Amino acid sequence: MKLATWNVNSIKVRLPQLLAWLGRERPDVVCLQETKTEDLTFPTQDLREAGYHSLFAGQRAYNGVAILARVPVEDAVGSIPRFADEQKRVLAANIDGMRVICVYVPNGESVASDKYSYKLSWLAALHAWLGQEIKAYPQVALLGDYNIAPEDRDVHDPRLWDGKVLFSEPERAAFRRLQELGLSDSFRLFEQPERLFTWWDYRMNAFKRNLGLRIDHILLSPGLAARARASRIDKSMRGLERPSDHAPMVTELE
DNA sequence: ATGGCTTCATAGTGAAGA
Question: pTM of the predicted model, to two decimals?
Fold first, then answer.
């Protein structure tokens, strides 16, 4: 069982890369973020021909999440219950006995901005809801673009990023609170080389210089963590022509 | 150096991303 997450930064632009990647990688479940398209224009048919059922919560121009699965999904929800939010950032569904939750955590812009406050409230609402989901479902997988680098080793230059959005202490504390619900960062269940990231700025030749952050994550509840056998970042996708600024990550379960 | 790319919405530039 292969679980994957990828912020595609426009599913319309990235569709050829996505289809090629699905054909090569054959994941069972894929969570996508920043699809940036309304539901009516989601490429359901192309993905069906590639062997995937699609579930999506989209909006015009911004945000938008989707879950692709080899098997049909059940009991889907497209928002955090009782948290008013115009932005499409959440999708959850039952797949193969797991509760799969796809998230696109707000970026936050800068620690002084209103968007940062929104990010922290959003994370608090996610935490409260997850507490319930974990009680309701025996196996929970939380995949997505968290827009948080949890530790120093997840940042190319921790001193440069100290206190900055994506690496500020309140954001990292919110990430730790998710872990305290019993969720494991699947990437860190395994020995990994140093300086592996999931996002690199489009500017400044950041990818070539490996000036990145690890902000996309796959968190697993204990039963799923016990089944994890490997976790990796597919850096090759970031090196293609016209790439997303994020690379996909994959965790394999027994 | 508050920029630097890329996408979308738009038909000039501006918002947003991270």
Answer: 0.97
